[in-house]
Amino acid sequence: MAAVCVYPDMVEVAAPLLAGTGIKVASVATAFPSGRAALDVKLADVKSAVAAGADEVDMVIDRGAFLSGRYGAVYDEIVAVRAACSGAHLKVILETGELGTLDNVRRASWLAMLAGADFIKTSTGKVAPAATLPVTLVMLEAVRDWRVATGGTAGEATAGEGTAGEGTAGGQMVGVKPAGGIRTTKDAIRFIVTVHETAGDDWLSARYFRIGASSLLNDLLMQRDRMATGRYSGADYVTVD
Amino acid sequence: MSELTVASEAGRIAVRKTYKLYIGGAFPRSESGRSYMVSDYSGGFLANAALASRKDARDAVVAARKAFPGWSGATAYNRGQVLYRVAELLEGRRAQFATEVRMATGASPARAATEVDAAIDRWVWYAGWADKIAQVRGSANPVAGPYFNFSVPEPCGVVAVLAPQDSALLGLVSVIAPAVVSGNTCVVVASERRPLPAVTLAEVLATSDVPGGVVNVLTGAVAEISPWLASHMDVNAIDVTGAPGALADDMAVAAAGNLKRVVRLPAGDWEAEPGIERMTSYLETKTVWHPLGN
Amino acid sequence: MRFEYAPAPESRSVVTLRDSYGLFIGGQFVSGSSVFKTISPATEEVLAEVTQAGPEDVDRAVAAARHAYERTWSVMGGRERGKYLFRIARLIQERSRELAVLETLDNGKPIRESRDVDIPLAAAHFFYHAGWADKLSYAGFGPSPRPLGVAGQVIPWNFPLLMLAWKIAPALACGNTVVLKPAETTPLTALLFAEICQQAELPPGVVNIVTGDGATGHALVAHPGIDKVAFTGSTEVGKEIARICAVSGQRVTLELGGKAANIVFDDAPLDQAVEGIINGIFFNQGHVCCAGSRLLVQESVADELLTALKRRMERLRLGDPLDKNTDVGAVNSQAQLERIEAFAATGAEEGAERWSARCPLPDRGFWFPPTVFTGVSQAHRIAQEEIFGPVLSVLTFRTPDEAIVKANNTPYGLSAGVWSEKGSLILSMASRLRAGVVWANTFNRFDPASPFGGYKESGFGREGGRHGLEAYLDIHGTSVLGGSDV
């Protein structure tokens, strides 16, 4: 597990519990999930989460602005949040379920990366459809191309853990996180294969690719049980929390 | 050439039916892409039925589990009406089923019609049980203390049914209805050599208010599919009627993995009145206590 | 002022123990090839030597039961069978104090429980079933239900005489004969029951008692001369028995493990609920398959309830089981104590917070203090696995739906509890809980007229009431393995 994602007021609860585990505390912020609040409220939201100990901040873009073509406003807001994050990792949620077209997904991905996102994330999980394979494919193509645009080479395996994202000779690597709707092991495998086929194996680490999925774990446990026993398992044999 | 495939009128090419599986209210082909040839009683070609795989069985169990809360939560009156509706729609397709039964078994037209009529009447019989079984099997219990205590029957959950091999329609109905009447959902493995009436019955179910997933029909090799159902940890009971003796033993052993209720009743005469044992085999008894007082 | 209770021990003099006990086969006590000792778990003193029945002894017992079935019991009228059962019920009542003391000595449970619960209920089971013996044709299983034949019955150590009664009374009432194996650690009341059968002049071979360990039990359930297997015990052994019977074709009923949720809503009368929680998990040291071992408490009253619960737990008196003031007796065996201790260690390792009542533990014998774990999540082993000891796992919930999801999220389905003042809520919870027994605003109540048994991996078949008869009747010559009421 890479991170536990909570609302801002729960960061102070989660942080001490996860201290020393290697698991990060991520906090949604910027008036999650709607993103409908004044900029200073959003920035205060971010600052309070970071002050409480959040290692990562998950912001939502202003979809209203984006869809009405005010890309500059979206860009400026991401830059402002980036600054408010201090050292915290910034994930930018595009809420692709509201963007309408794959062209928009590509455009929003590029905008977020230009503005300094460490990660681009499909969804809040509150809007359907959430993480679909085509949308994730487009985002993976975007981060692949961003790496080339920032000086790297497509498919190159030079940038390893801890060196990328910093404008190294390998180019900048931005992470991708499909979130919501990935419930089965089979779904997860499809996404992982898509990462491998599209962005390349450099992305196959918790640093650059994550799956946001609360119900995936039990399916994984049931699949593992089937591999071990040769028979299908059931929901009574995995726990709900 | 059989009547299922020839033209009804001279010169017209018949439109044949594709026989598929019935899972979660939909009619998919086997995920394996396989099929097998189904012959009539004289060895003539009837159709290529889907040869279900273990993954089809798994998908069917998932569908049955998903349908269980809604179906078991419906009122008994409602379930009774839905089962009666199945009889109504079956009645309208008597000729079609009689032809399929005849093709499968070689029975005379009159004999085949009798079997179809018995199958329709069986649905009616079970429809009437839906809101009576609880009174027959439930009780208020006179305990020695200041408590109100009552017992009610409840469905046990997802039932795997290996349908009889011989009686492709009446036998099939006689093993499905007692499972679903009380709120269970089921995965049925149809008669291996005579699967077509089961698929056509699924078409009736799909159009008669039986919620998708309550009955799921698999066609294929019993020996291949049934071990996956017998060992499946999310199946609560199994009827091994359609398995030959040695396989039935193996299924009962595999069923012990999660203590499935195993139903091994003699196939017997499907036209005789069924009795309630098959129905009660899929019931749990729940007993509730509450104190009396001020 | 310091308040103390003076010791109030029940006298042991009512019990006369023999040095050694044989097997009860064909109406006589007979010797076997080897013996083992049975001890008092409260003191570790040796109470008596008991015979370990081998396969040839089981053979003899099954043959005696078969003989009695064919020559006597199945051809005797129901009215006469019933009178024997009434006799047995009366004899248990007459010798109830002796049975209670012996049960407490051999099992370690408080005399208050053996005296007020185990023995009276055992007598009641015989009395209840005695009346069925000549009325089976009215029980709803057809006009002439037949007995099955010889029943092989294996029972656990937690309610030795009561489980014997649950097994033998319906079997005999329905016209079957039995070979019963009591638990290895608690054979003595079954052997005293054999004497009662002699006093009742029950025809020889109708009841046979073979003592021994798991090997004896295996020999019995796998014996080809058995028509019906009845087992109460662990789910693991129950599955093994189900596999044996799957091949042999023997009818089988199984009453197995549980991990009951005891659900307390915020409108429950909390003091009353506390008593129910205490009774649910500390009755019989928690050695109860239907124990309320998972407390699900609504978050808004969790702190208040836990405070009250701990306060009440501090008042539980642990110690000499023969003392009439004792609430919590001895753990039944060293092996069970080790199992409980291992679970308690796991609970702490997995991050739950342990709190135990501050009661001094005696120096000798096997003891574990009443204990609660808080901060437990559904994934903790102490929330999933049956501990079978005085250990309560506490979880919280916010809505009825959450309570249902958590309560049902287990392979078991034996029992559950609901505490609320709202009738509609109680009834909807009762219907949604996947468990064979639901206690609402009470817990751990038993009665011969009340069907008992589990869903899912808690076993199949019911014991008690009209429903329980079906396990011992051949309804129309057909065989159903396991159907819940069969």
In words, what does this structure look like?
The complex is a heterotrimer of chains A (241), B (294) and C (486). Chain A is α/β, with parallel strands linked by helices. In chain A, 44% of the residues are buried. Chain A has helices at 11-18, 39-51, 63-67, 71-84, 102-114, 133-149, 185-198, 216-229, and strands spanning 3-6, 24-28, 56-60, 89-93, 119-121, 175-177. In chain B, helix 2 (76-91) runs antiparallel to helix 4 (109-129) and helix 3 packs antiparallel against helix 7 (196-206). The longest helix of chain B is centred in the middle third of the chain and has 21 residues, at 109-129. In chain C, helix 2 (78-94) packs antiparallel against helix 4 and helix 4 packs parallel to helix 5. The longest helix of chain C is centred in the N-terminal third of the chain and has 22 residues, at 111-132. The N and C termini of chain C lie far apart (59 Å). In chain C, 61% of the residues are buried. Chains in contact: A-B, A-C, B-C. Strand 10 (283-291) of chain B pairs parallel with strand 18 (437-440) of chain C.
